[in-house]
Write a structure and sequence with these properties.
Length: 350
C-alpha cells in the first residue's frame, strides 16, 4: 500500500466521533415563534425526543358527541318560517288585539253586565251614543255583554281545545305505536264515534248537571277522537323508520321514542287540529246553549247567538255583533293555524 494512502487511512481512523445526541434545551418549543419562510429544518422533528413528539390524547364522550351538533334550532326555524307569512302575522295581531280589547272594553264602557234591568223603558234600544251596541230584551247594555261573552267564550274554547288535543295526542301515540293496544283503542273509538255526541252530552247534562265545568269536561272526554285517529295514522308511518328501529335496539324508553323521535313530525298536524278546534268549540257551545244543555249564568257568544235568533227581525244588531266576532275568531284561527302548521313541518325547514 502506498505511503500516502496509508496515512489517509490512519487519519480517518483517528478522526473524532461525532456526538448525535440532541440537547433538549436547544429545541424550540414555542409554536408561536415566527420561523423564516421556506423549507424548515428537515431533520429537526426526527431528532426530537419521543416525549416531545407524542402526547396522550384524552377521550371525552360528551365532547365527542358535541362534534356532531349543529346550530339548528327547531323552534327558531319555526318562528323564522312563520313570520314570512305576512297575512298570518296580521291575523295573529288582530286576534291578540281582539282578546286584549275584551278586558279594555269593560273599563271604557259606561255600564257593566250587572246593571239593573229595565225591560219597560230600555228593552231593545238600537245602538246610540248612550248604548253603543244597543240594549237587550230586559234593558241591559249590550256592549258590556258582547265583550264579556267574547272573553268567556275564547277562554272556554282554548281550554277545551287544549284538553282535547292533549288527550288525543297521548292516546294517538300509544294507539299507533303499541300494536297490542290497537284492537282495544279501535273498539273504543268505534263505540264512542258510532253514537252521536249530542246523546252523550244530553245524558251527562240530565244525570250529572249542566254546569260549565261539567260540560267542558264532557266535551274533552268525547272530543279527542278525531285527533287521536289522525295521530295514530301518522304514527304508523314513522314507527318503523330506521332511527326508531335503532332506538329500540339500543333499549330506548318508549316515552322517549314517542316524544323525541315521532312527536316533532306531528306538531304541524296538531297545531292545525287545535286551530280548527277553537272555533269549533265555540260553535258547539252555541249548540248546547241553544238546546238548553248548558246552564250559563254569565253571557257567552253561544248564549247571545242563541237568544238573538228569535228576535232577529226586530233587533238585528243582537245577532250582528256576536256573529261578526265569531267570524273574526274563526277566520284568524284558520289562517294562523294553517300558517303555523306549515312552519312546524320539518320538511319546510332549510
Amino acid at each position: 500500500m502506498p505511503n500516502n494512502d496509508r496515512q489517509k487511512t490512519v487519519q480517518e481512523m483517528e478522526a473524532p466521533v461525532v456526538n448525535l445526541t440532541v440537547d433538549e434545551k436547544s429545541i424550540d418549543t414555542n409554536p408561536k415563534k415566527e420561523r423564516p419562510m421556506g423549507r424548515e429544518y428537515p431533520h429537526a422533528r426526527r431528532d426530537m425526543p419521543e416525549k416531545q413528539l407524542f402526547e396522550f390524547a384524552e377521550y371525552h364522550a360528551q365532547d365527542a358527541e358535541r362534534t356532531g351538533y349543529s346550530n339548528y334550532s327547531y323552534w327558531k326555524s319555526v318562528w323564522a318560517n312563520f313570520i314570512k307569512n305576512k297575512p298570518a302575522v296580521i291575523m295573529t295581531i288582530v286576534f291578540l288585539a281582539l282578546f286584549i280589547f275584551t278586558f279594555v272594553a269593560s273599563a271604557i264602557g259606561k255600564y257593566d253586565i250587572n246593571m239593573k234591568p229595565d225591560p219597560i223603558n230600555r228593552a231593545y234600544l238600537p245602538p246610540s251614543a248612550e248604548y253603543w251596541f244597543g240594549t237587550d230584551g230586559i234593558g241591559r247594555d249590550y256592549w258590556a255583554q258582547v265583550w264579556y261573552a267574547t272573553r268567556a267564550s275564547i277562554l272556554l274554547a282554548v281550554l277545551v281545545s287544549l284538553g282535547q288535543i292533549a288527550v288525543g295526542v297521548v292516546i294517538g301515540l300509544i294507539w299507533g305505536y303499541v300494536r297490542k293496544l290497537d284492537r282495544f283503542f279501535t273498539e273504543l273509538y268505534n263505540l264512542i264515534d258510532n253514537i252521536p255526541t249530542i246523546i252523550y252530552m244530553t245524558l251527562i247534562a240530565l244525570m250529572i248537571g249542566k254546569s260549565l265545568l261539567t260540560m267542558g269536561i264532557a266535551m274533552i272526554a268525547f272530543g279527542w277522537l278525531a285527533t287521536a285517529r289522525n295521530v295514530r295514522n301518522l304514527v304508523f308511518m314513522y314507527r318503523d323508520r330506521e332511527y326508531n328501529l335503532a332506538s329500540r335496539c339500543l333499549g330506548t324508553k318508549l316515552s322517549r321514542i314517542l316524544f323525541r323521535n315521532i312527536f316533532p313530525y306531528l306538531i304541524s298536524v296538531i297545531i292545525l287540529r287545535m286551530a280548527l278546534a277553537i272555533p269549533g268549540t265555540i260553535a258547539y257551545e252555541t249548540t248546547l246553549t241553544y238546546l238548553g244543555l248548558m246552564d250559563i249564568t254569565k253571557p257567552s257568544l253561544g248564549m247571545l247567538l242563541s237568544s238573538a235568533r228569535a228576535i232577529f227581525p226586530r233587533a238585528s244588531y243582537t245577532l250582528l255583533f256576536p256573529a261578526i266576532i265569531v267570524s273574526i275568531i274563526t277566520i284568524t284561527f284558520y289562517l294562523v293555524g294553517n300558517a303555523f302548521s306549515d312552519a312546524c313541518d320539518p320538511r319546510n325547514h332549510v
